[in-house]
């Protein structure tokens, strides 16, 4: 997703076998002693045991965050002091870069290249918000008569932040960094499948000088801990990244207390290749667009539309290059595709491919569970290209969240736009053309939060990330995110020389 640092990461020995909850600045076991195991999806091996937050622990974390917000010093710090502390978080992360990369690979099975880019982006997110907060301020508004009006941006309060498993550290950074910048307190619930790097990030926040209670990390189950956070009266905001069905459920529950809600949800992003595109660049970019992070990306460009006049040539090149993608040891520099997160997700992916076959589609390459030498107990799927599909098929309409792409033809610009927009989702989109006017015209008509023009990358610190339609609402990673963690207070004052007497009594 971002810049990749050239470093050699050795295969690590997992020295630490137990990870604690972080509540009120303390590393704690869970109140009822419950733990859960986390696995390396590449090998199927247990890598560590993690304290599992109970409802009681969740309540404790909420009270800690509440105290820290209502009576603590974090939000009262001058902006430059908060900014300095956030930069310190980034510099500790830089110093521990290799350790974070190793841990992320072990917990997710993703490739070295992907993990390095994501850890680097997580670091850069903190650096971005350390700078962005300095320019974040209210306004002076012009009003008639002897009145003055100005607005203040005040932190919204205690924020519950719920994280998915596909980008465990990067998503945690996207959420913690802006909330900290404006002065909020947070309770982070990592995904149960991938809790480790979020816990380390919580420890780093404390080490950097974030006061106790401001950052709490509580791994635990979504239905228990997640629901408790979402329904609690003393939580002011919930920021969720995950699947669309859970996002809808969260919005409904949060409505009972009128919590502020931001939702970063699923996608089925279109990728349009016009007849005048640089074919090689479009093939390489489209390959990255779907197979990066093993296709487990919310903005994976999983619907590929290619102009009919270049369809055969493009598909031939695309399939040949797909066959060259290497599945293997995630720690090897040459590995392109890492593991799928677990058996459940592997079954989901395979189920979609089988449904496509039943619907009459053609599998051009891949289409089955992969056998990877030395990783027989892990979860792997062959990069899969499916053609002869239409918009009535499940494989075209639903998010698969794996290394599977469908390819279709179009005959003109109008049809390409129509097909691209024929979806419930609206997160990413990409288009490949050398015609600048066409690029602008199509970008303007696509119903998606992100349009990538001749570009395979969807996000850098500072670029808004978020969806249209059922891909959610709110934008992360950008200046506007700061507004989503603040309330605007309007202060009106009278400066006339005579007292006001509106009733005239
Ligand atoms: P998920 O099943 O929706 O889970 C996401 C998080 O929500 C996990 O921490 C989960 O906890 C928690 N959760 C589950 N039920 C909950 C509930 N009732 N109340 C509160 N929290 C609950 O999604 P996932 O499978 O982890 O992630 C994949 C999905 O995320 C895909 O749909 C993908 O498109 C989306 N995603 C979107 C973006 C974006 O920026 N738009 C980025 C990344 C991923 P447990 O799993 O621990 O139970
Ligand atoms: Mg894991």
Automatic annotation (TrEMBL):
<dbReference type="InterPro" id="IPR029510">
    <property type="entry name" value="Ald_DH_CS_GLU"/>
</dbReference>
<keyword id="KW-0560">Oxidoreductase</keyword>
<dbReference type="InterPro" id="IPR015590">
    <property type="entry name" value="Aldehyde_DH_dom"/>
</dbReference>
<dbReference type="InterPro" id="IPR016163">
    <property type="entry name" value="Ald_DH_C"/>
</dbReference>
<comment type="similarity">
    <text>Belongs to the aldehyde dehydrogenase family.</text>
</comment>
<dbReference type="InterPro" id="IPR016162">
    <property type="entry name" value="Ald_DH_N"/>
</dbReference>
<feature type="active site">
    <location>
        <position position="264"/>
    </location>
</feature>
<feature type="domain" description="Aldehyde dehydrogenase">
    <location>
        <begin position="31"/>
        <end position="491"/>
    </location>
</feature>
<dbReference type="InterPro" id="IPR016161">
    <property type="entry name" value="Ald_DH/histidinol_DH"/>
</dbReference>
<protein>
    <submittedName>
        <fullName>Aldehyde dehydrogenase (NAD+)</fullName>
    </submittedName>
</protein>
<dbReference type="Pfam" id="PF00171">
    <property type="entry name" value="Aldedh"/>
</dbReference>
């Amino acid at each position: 997703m971002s810049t990749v640092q050239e470093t050699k990461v050795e295969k690590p020995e997992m020295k630490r076998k137990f990870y604690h909850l972080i509540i009120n600045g303390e590393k704690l076991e869970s109140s009822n002693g419950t733990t859960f195991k986390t696995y390396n999806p590449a090998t199927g091996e247990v890598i560590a045991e993690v304290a599992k937050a109970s409802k009681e622990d969740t309540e404790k974390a909420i009270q800690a965050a509440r105290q820290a917000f209502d009576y603590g010093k974090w939000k009262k710090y001058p902006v430059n002091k908060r900014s300095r502390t956030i930069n310190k978080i980034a510099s500790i992360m830089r110093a521990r870069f290799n350790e974070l990369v190793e841990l992320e690979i072990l917990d997710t099975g993703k490739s070295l290249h992907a993990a390095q880019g994501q850890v680097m982006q997580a670091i850069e997110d903190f650096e971005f918000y350390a700078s962005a907060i300095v320019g974040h301020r209210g306004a002076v508004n012009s009003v008639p008569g002897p009145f003055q009006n100005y607005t203040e941006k005040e932190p919204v309060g205690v924020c519950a932040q719920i994280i998915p498993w596909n980008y465990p550290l990067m998503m945690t950074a996207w959420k913690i960094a802006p909330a900290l910048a404006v002065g909020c307190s947070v309770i982070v619930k990592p995904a149960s499948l991938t809790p480790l790097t979020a816990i380390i990030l919580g420890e780093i926040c404390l080490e950097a000088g974030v006061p106790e209670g401001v950052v709490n990390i509580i791994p635990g189950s979504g239905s228990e801990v997640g629901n408790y956070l979402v329904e609690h009266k003393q939580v002011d905001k919930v920021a969720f990244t995950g699947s669309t069905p859970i996002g809808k459920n969260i919005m409904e529950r949060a409505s009972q207390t009128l919590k502020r809600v931001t939702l970063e949800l699923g996608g089925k992003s279109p990728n349009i290749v016009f007849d005048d595109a640089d074919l090689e660049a479009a093939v390489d970019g489209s390959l990255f667009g779907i197979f990066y992070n093993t296709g487990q990306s919310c903005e994976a460009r999983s619907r590929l539309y290619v102009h009919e006049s270049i369809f055969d040539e493009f598909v031939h090149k695309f399939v040949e290059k797909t066959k060259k993608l290497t599945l293997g040891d995630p720690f090897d520099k040459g590995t392109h595709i890492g593991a799928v997160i677990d058996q459940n997700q592997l079954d989901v992916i395979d189920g979609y491919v089988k449904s496509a076959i039943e619907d009459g589609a053609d599998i051009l390459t891949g289409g089955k569970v992969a056998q990877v030498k030395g990783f027989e107990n892990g979860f792997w799927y062959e990069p899969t290209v499916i053609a002869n599909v239409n918009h009535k098929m499940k494989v075209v309409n639903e998010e698969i969240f794996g290394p599977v792409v469908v390819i279709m033809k179009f005959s003109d610009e109008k049809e390409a736009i129509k097909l691209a927009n024929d979806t419930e989702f609206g997160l990413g989109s990409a288009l490949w053309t050398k015609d600048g006017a066409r690029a602008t015209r199509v970008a303007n008509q696509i119903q998606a939060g992100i349009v990538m023009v001749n570009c395979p990358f969807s996000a850098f610190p500072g670029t808004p990330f978020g969806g249209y339609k059922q891909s959610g609402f709110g934008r992360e990673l950008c200046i506007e995110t700061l507004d989503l963690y603040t309330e605007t207070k309007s202060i009106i004052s009278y400066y006339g020389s005579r007292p006001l007497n509106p009733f005239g009594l």
